[in-house]
Amino acid sequence: MATNCLTGQHAHHDVYAAQCPCRAMLDLLANKWSALAIGALEEGPLRFGALQRLLQGVSPKVLTQTLRRLEDVGLVDRTVYPAVPLHVEYALTGLGLSAAVPLRLLRTWVEENIDDLASVPSSQGTEPSMVRQPPVGPAPRTLSR
Known about the structure:
The chain is an alpha+beta fold and 145 residues long. Helix content is 41%, strand content 12%. The protein is built from five helices and five strands, in the order ββααβααββα.
């Protein structure tokens, strides 16, 4: 589904087109930590430590990178309050709030349907049923000396 490009960079936006800038935004929003950070910020501004506690399993480095990417594209605002130590809060912008709506629907769908999905990889690795099996065919030849 293509829409006219208002930036004038090309005729229309189409996420299925390899060179469309929509792809980079889709990649960012489809990222697990981005989707979870946006969801955590829906209720209001949070400090880095509070975000990290909510997003169990994210490393400080990955959370920092994710928040920077979200800030760079205009989905998150970072506000620094002059205090000792510095007080930094992250909040969704208007665009971030609009992106939160479909992401909330996706998170809700996952939570409601996870038990009905077969062979979902665990967060610690893949389940045995998800391990890719080698193709069936003749056995590999060994070199004899």
